[in-house]
Amino acid sequence: MRRRKDPLWARLLLVAGAVLVVSSGGTLVAAQTLIGQAEESITQTDLIGGGGDAARAEGNDIDGAVNLLLVGIDAREGDQDFRADTIIILHIPKTHDQAYLISIPRDWMVEIPPNEEFEFDGSTEKINAAFYYGSRLPGTALEKRGRGTEVLAATLRKHTGIEFNGAAVIDFGGFHSIVHALGGVDMCIAEPAESAHLGIDAKGKLVQGWYNDQVFPPRLEGLPPGSRPLVHEPGCRSMDATRALDYARIRKSLDNGDYGRQQHQQQLIKAIVKKATSSGVLTDLGKLNELVKAAGEAFILDTRGTPVADFFFTLKGVAANDLTLIKTNAGTFNTSAETGAEQLDAESLQMLAAAKDGTLSTFLIEHPQYIANSR
């Protein structure tokens, strides 16, 4: 494990690992100021495997198309083993003027390849288990996250052929800190979404509950008498960190289940990018420093040995408004009757192959149904 002294990367990584930054002069000045002030930022470690920094940097070509693996985990206090709750591929074409977020269904049934080093013989099950099989051995939280991401990356590589140029891991507590540092984000809600974790008490105050999935039907429990579940009603509004993260976690009450949740998670990432690159944040050094601190505590990063500055200058043309949200299976369920797990259809696999080959932009022109509504 090592820590870099580059707070710029911390600010950029608050989009869940996306190396996105506007190219205005004010942004560059603010970034240079932060670089000069900060002592430490994000924890960096080997998340994908492949040897030391020098060996990895030699094979990490970011002059062409770039693919980054973003992993979100819901690590509660006392948890020792984790599954990947959110799996996103951030694809940037070779023009470096656009970025795409591709959510991978966590219920995708796949072959998870064996890993002798991690004492794993391989398995066929839902892809979110890949992270678990890497993280289950004893070790520190950082070591567990590193091993889990490595097995997950190997699984995605096996089924898509994508070689990742970098990776980032964040838990939901980290996302909460970042959104709080931003002062909330603007979100647009398309359909009523009932929370599985938060309620409103008799006085109209927000209260924390817990989701009991050991009963049928599963339900929100632990609320004070007279409380009701929080329902996120349709409309556009500013949301604080607690509400924004809650909204991005909901799937049971959505018409489109996990596909709806994927879209909301992508939407939240885009909202974070937009707020983080707004003039109100970039011109406020106090807020920037708070943001850098939150991001530095939230993320674990692997740049594959490529200097952070190289990422910045190569990808500085990508802005928040150039972040396009992509849905597999065109956002519809393709569930196996035998296993109850999700399968990616032939077109979705073609879409991932296009990300591998750097031709995703062309694929989306021909298949616009894979582009999600960003609101």
TrEMBL record:
Residues 83-277 form the Cell envelope-related transcriptional attenuator domain. InterPro entries: LytR/CpsA/Psr_CW_biosynth (IPR050922), LytR_CpsA_psr (IPR004474). It holds the Pfam family LytR_cpsA_psr. It comes from the Bacteria. Belongs to the LytR/CpsA/Psr (LCP) family. PANTHER family: POLYISOPRENYL-TEICHOIC ACID--PEPTIDOGLYCAN TEICHOIC ACID TRANSFERASE TAGU. This is Anionic cell wall polymer biosynthesis LytR-Cps2A-Psr (LCP) family protein.
